[in-house]
Write a structure and sequence with these properties.
about 260 residues, Rossmann fold, seven-stranded parallel sheet, single chain
């Protein structure tokens, strides 16, 4: 389905982003992966994608807090592959703290990575999509793009911002065969979710199991974590012709969380 196309997936060295990158490679897309982590582990994933799926995969270490590096990543992808056909904005970090104790530098970092980076990638990639007359922009949002939880002021603000950005860009390019959508998962078991458990334990004075049961899954009626493969499958669907009329939407994958 994506043969001869190129997908840039930010925050794709692990978790949801890596699952999306692999799913798109399986469909024939060349891939640009991006993110931080152990260099050896990243190279193992990069080369593994090429070997398993028979596509070309390159790694960009662009820092999602730096607009110049983001622009260079998109320009390099266009130089390498001719175009960026699919852009997946998935990079994200989290910090859990009461707002009156929330570190200012953490607020700035979360807004930069979880929200502003998507502005910069979209701004850089759209001209090429317009020239080709086709494009798919997929933003990894969250149920927190639609509802709030305590102690996550920066994350919730950023994800609400992603919802607004998604709708705005979708309207701007609605007649140019470019769709822009956001996937809004509930809790997905990823390194990001796992990493916030200690802070949540401290903030709420709970055990790890209590955090999983009474915080993370409390609002999900299914009482199950969403899987990275389920999110990746939704991203693939959004790239299909069947999804060409779906744009400007927040697609909930939250086990019924936001139905309540």
């Amino acid at each position: 389905m994506l043969a001869n196309k190129t997908a840039v997936v930010t925050g794709s060295t692990s978790g949801i982003g890596l699952a999306i990158a692999k799913a798109m490679a399986r469909e024939g897309a060349n891939i640009v992966i991006n993110g931080f982590g152990d260099a050896g582990a990243i190279e193992k994933e990069r080369s593994g994608i090429e070997r398993e799926f028979g596509v070309k995969c390159v790694y960009s270490g662009a820092d999602m807090t730096k607009p110049d590096e983001i622009s260079a990543m998109i320009a390099d992808a266009e130089k390498e592959f001719g175009a960026v056909d699919v852009l997946v904005n998935n990079a994200g970090i989290q910090h859990v703290s009461p707002i009156d104790e929330f570190p200012v530098e953490k607020w700035d970092q979360i807004i930069a990575i979880n929200l502003s980076s998507s502005f910069h990638t979209i701004r850089a990639a759209l001209p090429g999509m317009k020239r080709k007359g086709w494009g798919r922009i997929i933003n990894t949002a969250s149920a927190h793009a639609l509802v709030a939880s305590p102690f996550k002021s920066a994350y919730v603000a950023a994800k609400h911002g992603i919802a607004g950005l998604t709708k705005t860009v979708a309207l701007e390019v609605a007649q140019q065969k470019i769709t822009v959508n956001a996937i809004c998962p509930g809790y997905v078991w990823t390194p990001l979710v796992e990493a916030q458990i200690p802070d949540t334990m401290k903030a709420r004075n709970m055990t790890e199991e209590q955090v999983k049961r009474d915080v993370l899954l409390a609002a999900q009626p299914t009482k199950e974590f969403v899987t990275v493969d389920q999110v990746a499958a939704m991203a693939i669907f959004l790239c299909s012709n069947a999804a060409s009329s779906i744009t400007g939407t927040m697609l909930q994958m939250d086990g019924g969380w936001t139905a309540q």
